[in-house]
Amino acid sequence: MSDKKFDLITIGECLVEFSSNQKLADSDCLHKYYGGDSLVVAISASRLGSNVGFITCLGNDPFKNYLLQNWEKEGLDTTCTRIVNDPNGIYMVSRTDVHDKEFIYYRKKIAPSKLSVDDINADYIKQSKIIYCSGVTQSLSLGSREAVKYAFKIARENGVITAYDPNYSSLISTSEEAREYFDEIISMTDILFMSSKYDTKNIFETESLENIAKYLSDCGVSITVIKSSDDKGYFVCHDGKITFVNFYTQNVVDTTSSGDVFNGAFLHAFANGSNMLESGKIASITAGLQAQGIGAVKSTPYHDEVYNLFKTEEF
After folding, report:
1. Which residue of 13, 172, 191, 313 is most buried, as measured by CB atoms within 10 A?
2. What is the CATH number of the domain that holds 53?
3. In this structure, is residue 1 part of a structural domain?
4. What is the rounded distance in angstroms from the CA atom of residue 129 to the CA atom of residue 270?
5. Which domain holds residue 16?
6. Is 0.90 surpassed by the pTM of this model?
């Protein structure tokens, strides 16, 4: 029996989402919600039944109570959420169809950029089975980069598993910056998530799955999951073996944050005793169901729907 309080703690940003199914220029109304990659990972795991903590800085603006109340409804522990006077970040997204999306980010000098090593409580980190963050978290500020390194250092020293996703986006950072973030953290990473479309092409000079897997294994990474839209599935690399898990569905409506939903579900399953193949399938189902709806969080499914499908369907 584990004495850990949390299955997972994520570190990162929350952004207020304003979305439309029309082009932003043509929209008379934008629907309010919220997103942010580390937050979506946290909610994905929590909805499947994990105990999850979220470390961030929250802006003391008109969105503060809206966000806090929703995180509490999601069951997230916010003990290490710090309120600051900077504004919360915003992104706007239009989805006219799955292949035609517009994104605008307003994330300069926002509350989560105030993250620092002072927000990383060692005793809090020790209470979790897994700590997760991304290159997006690192991109917020120099302080947030130091916070990520410090959290992973504490985790490594105390037998807590570390999980990382570069989550590269040209809207957020350059490929050179993404490589810097990656190089800074990879030696302290146990579980790595990457996208073949964005991450591997911008961080590595090779697209060879075998070479990438060997390099990462030599760096000390225990588990690597590479998401491949071209192959319509996920490559799970562990102990020198590569297992392939198909996408649960090809009938997608909106893939916004589906990769983050996958990460949260995989970490939930792994933290609760599932093997590599089981974790991959549970995560694929969760991400597939989410991609059949609209929005980063709204369509993220809950435990019973996912596990009923996991027990009864082959894909």
Report:
1. 13
2. 3.40.1190.20
3. no
4. 10
5. 6-312
6. yes
